[in-house]
Design goal:
Shape: flat
Number of helices: 16
Structural class: alpha/beta
Distance between the termini: 16 Å
Strand content: 15-25%
Radius of gyration: 30 Å
Helix content: 40-55%
Order of helices and strands: EEEHHEEEEHEHHHHHHEHEEHEHEEHHHH
Number of strands: 14
Largest sheet: 6 strands, mixed
């Protein structure tokens, strides 16, 4: 990777109040000079915000009045001199500002993940922390976001380093025995076995926590289903707080499932409103609609059976009994209507009464969905790994431990044990990037966004 100065936007394309652009490398002061003039360079102070008028270095035309921050290396994100600019969020301004910066000799556009890659290469973070930056950006719920922040803070890195020290100590003992084989007593195989087993158990514990990155981008799927005109579409609109889905008193208005996004306290979900499922189809199109509803139910993480609260209670119970999809819970709608089932007769288990019109029960429904989908089930100290690369390195280390334990049963030459523990240590070093190839680094950072 070349050491030229790089520039890229840190915020997505589109109109906003403020945008952000990052510049990093040896020509940062030249960029300040080109945009803001000699006086701005003379006043540069690390970590100090300044207001200035950026001008095109070739034409002298004003690009924008903006706030900018200078970070002197190595006390910056990348470890290099870094400049962050905060212009107005007009895409025209952002583009013109980047073009103006690129006119400075030695400045080019950044590649995906190049800022974080430079931070890794300059010792600002290890490879586990660098990979967790993407998790912080793409986590879909609070539990995953908290885990990503733990990884970024170095929690896993510390565990790996502690493991590496134990392996290093074990290797030193073995190497010592090799060097003084003629002077020492018989090798202490039992003591070594206990130490190696403990190392293997710790590696296995971290390996078992693995959750693939596909989980980070997959949103939980919640499906509302029930008889035609049960109030499913009205319920979706009430949860969203807007009329997103067409609602009618005519049964069968919804012919295909409709998917929307809903934010709960624990994270974002996919909420699906399905076509009504009746005992009999009225026509071929109705039959196809019901079949699609049953298909999407098979994919659901949470199934909510919506029952018309104005039906006779015995009919409602019959619907529940006939239901083959085994809902996670039942929602009884239309509680605000005069024909709603009275509270004294309301005896359907595992159910919740709601009114899409008055809002009754909506907060409780949100809480039930949130508790069902986003229960963390772990303490603040617990972490899980999400990187296939980290999993592969740890699996390689674990296999090395298993080979060492197999050798111990045969009481081999100590040199063989020492060699296996060296391999285990190299695998652990690869996790945090102490040993890494250019191909591996390219693969990791190519998946990052441009400004990171």
């Amino acid at each position: 990777m070349d050491s030229r100065t790089i520039v890229a936007p840190m915020t997505p394309a589109g109109v906003s109040a403020v945008a952000a652009i990052r510049v990093s490398g040896p020509q940062v002061r030249d960029v300040v000079l080109a945009l803001f003039g000699e006086r701005a360079v003379a006043r540069l102070e690390s970590h100090m915000a300044r207001l200035g008028t950026a001008r095109d270095p070739k034409t002298g035309e004003t690009v924008d009045s903006l706030l900018y921050l200078f970070f002197e290396g190595p006390n910056s994100y990348t470890g290099e001199d870094t400049l962050e600019l905060y212009p107005h969020g007009n895409p025209l301004i952002v583009r013109e500002l980047i073009q103006a910066i690129r006119k400075v000799q030695g400045v080019r556009l950044a590649e995906p993940g190049e800022f974080t890659r430079r931070a890794f290469l300059n010792g600002k973070m290890d490879l586990v922390q660098a990979e967790s930056v993407a998790d912080v950006i793409h986590s879909a719920n609070r539990a995953e976001l908290k885990n990503a922040h733990r990884l970024l803070s170095g929690t896993l890195s510390k565990k790996i380093q502690e493991l590496n020290e134990r392996v290093k100590d074990m290797s030193a003992r073995l190497e010592l025995d090799v060097d003084f084989a003629e002077e020492e007593a018989d090798p202490d195989y039992d003591s070594w076995r206990k130490r190696i087993v403990a190392i293997g158990e710790k590696i296995s514990e971290i390996l078992q926590s693995f959750r693939g990155k596909e989980n980070l981008s997959r949103l939980p799927l919640v499906v509302l289903y029930g008889a035609p005109n049960a109030g499913k579409s009205s319920l979706v609109n009430a949860l969203l707080g807007e009329d997103r889905i067409l609602v009618s008193s005519v049964p069968g208005t919804t012919r295909d499932f409709v998917e929307v996004r809903l934010f709960l306290p624990g994270g974002e979900i996919r909420l699906v409103d399905t076509a009504g499922i009746a005992d009999r189809a009225t026509d071929e199109l109705d039959a196809l609609s019901m079949e699609k509803s049953r298909e999407i139910l098979k994919e659901a993480d949470l199934k909510i059976h919506v029952v018309d609260g104005c039906l006779d209670e015995r009919t409602g119970c019959a619907l529940q009994t006939k239901d083959e999809s085994k809902p996670d819970f039942i929602v009884i709608t239309k509680s605000d209507l005069e024909t709603a089932i009275p509270n004294s007769e309301f005896r359907i288990p595992n159910s919740l009464r709601i009114s899409s019109k008055t809002g009754e029960g909506l907060a409780e429904l949100r809480q039930k969905m949130d508790a069902s989908l986003f229960t963390e089930g772990c303490s603040p100290e617990d972490i899980w790994i999400t990187s296939e690369r980290e999993r592969a390195c740890l699996a390689e280390a674990f296999e090395g431990v298993k080979r060492a334990l197999d050798l111990l049963q045969k009481q081999p030459a100590v040199e063989l044990l020492a060699f296996e523990m060296q391999l285990v240590r190299r695998s652990l070093q690869s996790v945090v990037g102490e040993i890494s190839s250019e191909d591996i680094l390219q693969s990791i950072f190519a998946g990052f966004c441009i400004g990171k």
